[in-house]
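Q: I have four molecules that I believe assemble together. Could you output structure tokens for the complex as a whole instead of separate predictions?
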Amino acid sequence: MTKTASLTASRRNSVDDIVDHLYREITSLRLLPGTRISETDIASQFGVSRQPVRDAFRRLETMDLILVRPKKATEVKKFSMRAIEKSRFVRAAVEAAALRKAAELCDKAGGFELDSRIAMQHKALANEDYSGFGALDYAFHKAICEIGQVPFAFDIIKEEKEKVDRLCILGLSKERRMPQLIQDHEDIAAAIKAHDAEAAVAAGMRHLSRLDETIAAIQINSAAYFTDDA
Amino acid sequence: MTKTASLTASRRNSVDDIVDHLYREITSLRLLPGTRISETDIASQFGVSRQPVRDAFRRLETMDLILVRPKKATEVKKFSMRAIEKSRFVRAAVEAAALRKAAELCDKAGGFELDSRIAMQHKALANEDYSGFGALDYAFHKAICEIGQVPFAFDIIKEEKEKVDRLCILGLSKERRMPQLIQDHEDIAAAIKAHDAEAAVAAGMRHLSRLDETIAAIQINSAAYFTDDA
DNA sequence: GTATCCCAACTTGGATACAAGACTTGACTT
DNA sequence: AAGTCAAGTCTTGTATCCAAGTTGGGATAC
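A: Yes, here they are, computed for all four components at once.
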């Protein structure tokens, strides 16, 4: 989650619990876009009054996860292609910048780090551990940011990635895409190790573009979960 | 503040009014970082109960503008160099991507657009209209995004720019920097019109780096408004 | 049988009362 | 005179009540 994690740690009250719970429910798609949720329902689920739930709703609202329609109802926000394109653009820009830095600054230890992460991905593929691949994918991109000495870049990538990950649950299973994604990672790692910034960026953008196809397919198959804004 | 108190609470969503008001107060630095604000105080200022103010606080909290310390107090959040660096990185990455696209796609009309905006900036400089320069600066960067056909890129640039603008009020007056900034804009426009992406990015990064000096100076002179996190 | 209209039940928004933690200030003790 | 402890007053957190608007269903008229 975006917030200041270190500070919220000392603030474990019921509001945070409700926010966390609904955040997970929504991002995991257990609560589908368009689902109506009621303050009183959530309140009784947690055994508290409406007040903490209201606070939680305000936070989720500014996080753009729910849509509060006064006097009518509150529902899980639908996907917006406009928001997705914006998110994709940010991620592409940040990832490109991180890749350039990584290609410039990568040393032997960095190269080894990338290789070992890719090896773990191969192992996950061999073990058919599809659910664990997500974390390995995150770790790979995080390693790139660290090699490029732009650790905060991963914060942004993570934020944007999470937004889209929710969407991708609707798509095909990962197992078919995994070999392709690992191959992309190998291309990226090779370019970084060769200090070839442009090749690294090109490989990174190719990697990202896989997502576009997936999203396009989902948009067609699950049109009901999308707003018709753009 | 007192003049609009009862009027703004007319028939609009009072929560939005409170958020807007506090947002302006904070970003304009009329409310300095560290200033304590109380739910009951704001409530009586607006002539409403604590409830709408609480809702507003939740929104401002997720916007990272205030820090709510339960049972203690709520205060205007201080500047964090970590957050500023992150913001700078995002902006640099997005701006670089927009500049590359703009250099690729710029046509005659786009070049004219850039030139005319720069001409307006020269005029503002001649008229010593320092306060109006800010809007012209925004417009220039927005034009770049539009030429590059990435309109949402400006949304992000604007967001990040606003965060830092609050800080820059503490710095030196713009009048000394204006000629330099306009010169930067001319370099950027020339590179875009020449379809030289790398030169455009280089000029854009040089433009952004001016901010670093300003911020460094402010950090020293106004250390009280900064957290000591980074 | 169908269409229309009204009312009841649902939703969130706002106000108020009370609870609980933290800081301040004062008096009391040493 | 100085240190310590406790009460008071500040803060935000929570519960509950009422207001206002929308929706859907049931009853009634045709």
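A: One point stands out. Confidence is low (pLDDT under 50) at residues 1-11 of chain B.
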